[in-house]
């Protein structure tokens, strides 16, 4: 690892603009923005994926490896990534810093507390929660209806026991009511942190957060609770982007990490903007497959931030193609040409979808050791038939050397003469049901939408409060275009069931809940935490 | 503010041993210890207080001001303080970084997230909590009795609604059971962090933590749950002490912050040891009045760490003397000589008590603007009659200049020829009831102890498990020597009621609960959070 001061220096950042966290992590001070803001932006490249297997397809890995490869090819490139959440690191997933020769470092520190941003979100969120219950305890002058508090509490831990709880039990402990915890990355404050443009915008967004309704059915916001300034104080460091490096010394901005179902699943706007000033190319990623991640990246993040992506890289794997062709996950290591061919329908649809946003697409076949050459050729040939550039990526095994071909194809795409005509899928002025319908029919290819009674009641509130200008944030299974995880490939004709619609007024979107969305994961029978070891010098192993 | 690198350099710390958190905070790397450990220790001075008014007597302020004054007088002095907890900062108390011209800086960052130590304690604690419930969910091979889980969850927030909760409600969410949250500073992990000598000892202590009992009544530890290594990983940065400075550039180690009732209320052993290598004199403090703070400092912290204090500074105020003489807090600004004289009994008893530990005492009269000269003289004359050195401290108004006299008296005390004969009050080999009795009769001056049925059941468990070697950690009101907050002055003859005894096996003590001890504070009608403001440059006001 190089010192972060050296990485910064190579990226043109003077040491005075660094706020160091140890020797290998730094926050970027607002003074840097004052220096950078008049410089031209680099080109923004989104790394997204086809519908994944439960093991994931390697978007983070590919993002890191591609940034390394671009730098190796002489293009000043910065990666912009999400911060790993502690809960999943200690639970099912392990770390989230890439792997092999395409990693960001120091991996264990990034995976654990990093620079404390997620802890700050937890604190700000739970301060608001405590002030809501305290408001009711101290006389409830706002007339908050304890049955209609929508603001829960959060913790960055996988803890299913906290999903549904009863609080306030006992004498003098407040109002007894049902509540629950979400994981911190599901907090609206995380979405707000990632969508705001600066501290003033952060404060504005926090003030709009809906915490519940009063007895007359009127909305009550964080502003009314009196929590906004203190929440801003708690977040004032978290809003500054973090700089780290890859194993090859490529600068990476790792900042923010909202859920990809009930939130938009992208790293921060502020971090992306810094990256665009520092790199001629910025490679970033969005959560889940392109049906969720890329759609929200285009329709929410880029729209709100005024960003215009120049290209999208679609990560596919032989495994996920076979999975989408119907192979069970236990049998994915076996060859199965018919399933592979069948699963290509999933890739093809994602390519079509991405093109609907006016953005050129490049397929990255993330190579695994067990992939047969025939399988790899099958995928590349299919891409040829579809007229989409494609390259095999071996960045896990080889780092930048394994990403050369991918980088070359990306440079060709970025150097095209015809201008990129990015546009979001739907216009802001449409009403919420129309926006949902547009996504369901044009991206998911369902026949239509069925709203549950609860969703209809929520739509009535949206009508009454005049909130149709909001964007929609789809909360859906990542495994299928539909709301049914086992409907793989390229399904059509299904009806999308909308179970409920909730309001993230600070983030600026309505969350459309389909299927059974879990916002507080549980631990597995053998949590990743049990495999972690620390030696006497504090060196951690088993967290990757 | 000087750069922390400069403060460190002046204290003899090379930059290579710093792990910076921004420009004004740093962790001290273990490599520094390797360099320091063979150097001789400075002299350790405890700042403690008489029984306080609800506003507190200014121990932190006096500690900071005294360290500044000692440095101004040419004695290389380092202060060692506790980290402020976010909950009280946003709740009742506001910040905890001193005040006036005796402050540690950057105050707002120290008061908010600082270097993330308390967040790390929260994460480690709640990981264990989640793994306990997950263990039961996944088949409960240890046979944990859900009715006898003693390990709760923690949050660094004042949130009364979380004191008593029911968790695990709903299908697939685990075992429905009663539980609750404590504030993080009440976590045994905070006590463990503050008492451990290094990472290996931390791990040992974590492994001993009692989480509950199995259906056969046998204890179950964190080790059995499989959480210890991951908890250690989460704490590996938190265990490193933090360096900041006072307004006058005096180096201060701020590290750890356990509760002063159900824990021992002292800053970390590791931090104190570093300070003793860096300063010829180290000034440190302990929570609450001397009956709790100093007793635990002597009997728990110094004993476990093998530290020998050289002097104790007893902070008194005219207000607290009048308060102990029976004046209500609303009338403390008025003169009242009879009450002042009556309240001196409280000061006198603390002086007697401190001398029982073999440590010489110095009284610091923390001066407030409204104190009448006659009142001040009354206190100094009383100290003269008692043969105890005393000085007026005006460090709030004047910084080191206002602490000159106090520093001079302290130097006289430290330069005495006769050796200090520090000894703890009770021997480890006594049984738990005898240890409690010794404290109650010799420090509190009660007539005896009455154990509740619950306490007797706990004593039976202590018998059965052979745990009488533990130290005792008294959880008692800070306002009185007795267990009754309104029994002020120097009460005698009362019986101390012990409501329960809980086991902190990692910290190495049995917590003796008297009266109604709240381990999760609530917010007041007007939380301190509501008075905080942040401007567009991120400058915070209203947090002091």
Automatic annotation (TrEMBL), chains A, B:
Binding site for ATP: 53-60
Superkingdom: Bacteria
InterPro entries given in the database record: Formate_THF_ligase, Formate_THF_ligase_CS, P-loop_NTPase
GO molecular function: formate-tetrahydrofolate ligase activity
Sorted UniProt keywords: ATP-binding, Ligase, Nucleotide-binding, One-carbon metabolism
Catalytic activity: (6S)-5,6,7,8-tetrahydrofolate + formate + ATP = (6R)-10-formyltetrahydrofolate + ADP + phosphate
Keyword ATP-binding: yes
Pfam families (alphabetical): FTHFS
Pathway named in the protein's UniProt entry: One-carbon metabolism; tetrahydrofolate interconversion
Classification via SUPFAM superfamilies: P-loop containing nucleoside triphosphate hydrolases (SSF52540)
EC code: 6.3.4.3
Entry similarity comment: Belongs to the formate--tetrahydrofolate ligase family.
Designated name of the protein: Formate--tetrahydrofolate ligase
Organism of origin: Paenibacillus rhizoplanae
Native organism taxonomy: Bacteria, Bacillati, Bacillota, Bacilli, Bacillales
């Amino acid at each position: 690892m190089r010192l972060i001061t050296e990485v910064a220096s190579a990226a043109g950042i003077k040491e005075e603009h660094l706020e160091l966290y140890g020797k290998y992590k730094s926050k970027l001070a607002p003074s840097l923005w004052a220096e950078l803001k008049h410089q031209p932006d680099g080109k923004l490249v989104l790394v997204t994926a086809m519908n994944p297997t439960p093991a994931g397809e390697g978007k983070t890995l590919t993002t890191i490896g591609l940034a390394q490869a671009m730098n190796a090819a002489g293009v000043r490139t910065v990666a912009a990534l999400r911060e790993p959440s502690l809960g999943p690191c200690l639970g099912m997933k392990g770390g989230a810093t890439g792997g092999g020769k395409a990693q960001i470092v120091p991996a264990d520190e990034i995976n654990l507390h990093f620079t404390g941003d997620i802890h700050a979100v937890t604190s700000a969120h739970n301060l608001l929660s405590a002030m809501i219950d305290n408001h009711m305890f101290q006389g409830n002058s706002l007339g908050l209806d304890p049955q209609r508090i929508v603001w829960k509490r959060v913790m960055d831990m996988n803890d299913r026991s906290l999903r549904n709880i009863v609080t306030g039990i006992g004498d003098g402990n407040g109002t007894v009511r049902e509540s629950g915890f979400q994981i911190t990355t599901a907090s609206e404050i995380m979405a707000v942190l990632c969508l705001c443009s600066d501290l003033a915008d952060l404060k504005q967004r926090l003030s709009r957060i809906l915490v519940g309704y009063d007895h007359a059915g009127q909305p009550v916001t964080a502003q009314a609770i009196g929590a906004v300034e203190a929440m801003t104080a708690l977040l004032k460091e978290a809003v500054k982007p973090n700089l780290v490096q890859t194993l090859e010394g490529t600068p990476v901005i790792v900042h923010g990490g909202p859920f990809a179902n009930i939130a938009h699943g992208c790293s921060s706007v502020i971090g992306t903007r810094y990256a665009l000033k520092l790199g001629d190319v910025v490679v970033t990623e969005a959560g889940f497959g392109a049906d969720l991640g890329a759609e929200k990246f285009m329709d929410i993040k880029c729209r709100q931030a005024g960003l215009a992506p120049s290209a999208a890289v679609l990560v596919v794997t032989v495994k996920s193609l076979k999975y989408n062709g119907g192979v069970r996950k236990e049998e994915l290591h076996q060859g199965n040409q018919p399933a592979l061919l069948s699963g290509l329908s999933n890739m093809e649809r994602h390519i079509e979808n991405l093109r609907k946003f006016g953005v050129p697409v490049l397929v990255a076949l993330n190579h695994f050791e067990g992939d047969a050459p025939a399988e790899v050729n099958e995928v590349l040939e299919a891409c040829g038939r579809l007229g989409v550039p494609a390259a095999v990526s071996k960045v896990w095994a080889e780092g930048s050397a394994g990403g050369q071909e991918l980088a070359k194809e990306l440079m060709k795409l970025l150097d095209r003469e015809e201008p990129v005509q990015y546009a979001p899928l739907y216009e802001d002025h449409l009403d919420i049901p129309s926006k949902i319908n547009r996504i369901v029919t044009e991206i998911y290819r369902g026949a239509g939408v069925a709203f549950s009674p609860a969703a209809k009641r929520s739509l009535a509130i949206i009508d009454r409060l005049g909130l149709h200008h909001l964007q929609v944030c789809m909360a859906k299974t990542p495994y299928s275009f539909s709301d049914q995880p086992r409907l793989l490939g390229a399904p059509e004709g299904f009806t999308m069931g909308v179970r409920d619609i909730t309001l993230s007024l600070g983030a600026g979107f309505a969350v459309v809940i389909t299927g059974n969305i879990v916002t507080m994961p549980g631990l597995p029978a053998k949590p990743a935490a049990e495999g972690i070891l620390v030696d006497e010098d504090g060196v951690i192993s088993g967290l990757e």
